[in-house]
Structure formats: C-alpha cells, structure tokens
Amino acid sequence: MYKIIGFPRTRAMRVMWLLEELGEAYDIDPALPQSDAARAVNPSGKVPILMEGDTAITESVAICTYLADKHGRFTFPAGTLDRAKQDSFTQFGVDVLEGALWTAAKNTFINPEDKRAPAVKDVCRYEFARGLETLEARLGDGPYVMGETFTIADIIIGHCSGWAVAAKFDLPKEGPVYDYFKGLRNRPAFKAMMARVNEGT
Is the pLDDT assigned to residue 97 strictly greater than 90? Predict the structure, then answer.
C-alpha cells in the first residue's frame, strides 16, 4: 500500500487521483505544508510526499511520473514522440496554468504579508486566461490532450482547473475547454478522489 504525506486539499489531489485511476490502495497522512511531519521527510516542507518504503519522493509531477512509469499506465513510453508530446502538455500545465495560480496564491496568503504584491494577481488572471486559449488551440478531437488516451498530463491540467475555481479564476462556460474539463470531472476515479478529499482522509 502506498502512503501519501500531505493534506488532501493540496497538490496531493493529483497523486490521489492517479492512484484511484490505477486502482492502488493508499493511506494519507494529512500533514499540512511546512508541518513537522512534512519537513521530517522533505526539507522544503512541501507536500505531497510519496513514501515508497523508506524512500521519500517529492514534487507531485515527479510522483505521478514515477507511478505511471512503474505501473505502465496513463503514460506513453519514455523516448517516444508521444511521450515528448505528453510531457509538453504536462510542462505546459505546470509552467503556464499552475504558474499563474501559484503566483497568485503566494501573493494572497502564502508569503508573509510584507512580501506580497497583490497587484500581480490581475496579471496572473490574464496569464491564466491566455493559457486556456493556448490549451483550446492545442486540443485535438479529444477527449483528452493525447486524443483517446488519458494520461498524467490530464491529471495535472485537470487539477489546475479545480484550483482555478477555488482561486476564483474564470473558466469557460462552454466550448472545447469546458467540455474537456467536464469530461475529466466525470471520470469515476476523479469522483472517488474527491470523495476522499471531502472526507478529509
């Protein structure tokens, strides 16, 4: 059984979602970021952390990549053009969509008050909206970014859509990106993950 260290309403959701897709059992230690429990295994204090035996794996994208590669599912083989395209979508999700959301969060409640620049949040909303335009342009016939194949890139991008709702960033109310996000939310594994998140376990 896998063990996740990290409060569920964080990027831990990405790892939980993937483990639900894989059908793998997992326990959660709902440690908050910067808590003693998190710092004990990750000097940065960031969550999530996946414990594989005595080894701590940090950073949600690295964790998801490891699990997908290990189980041979929800990813294309390394060294293939499909994997390169998949990785480009993953990196887009992190750099563009998450980048805007994370910068806004740091300047809302994460950084010390005297280290925040509230005005930057308008720039973040602009960059996020531009990112969604790029996503729409890159989406093919779907239903996923890699066509018929659901991958961890969808998990990263899909998680950003939920984060956007919590951060009060605008999302499309119709069109291809709306349909894409709706399809992700309708996956049984996503619903199972959200049930555990709402339970707080």
Answer: yes
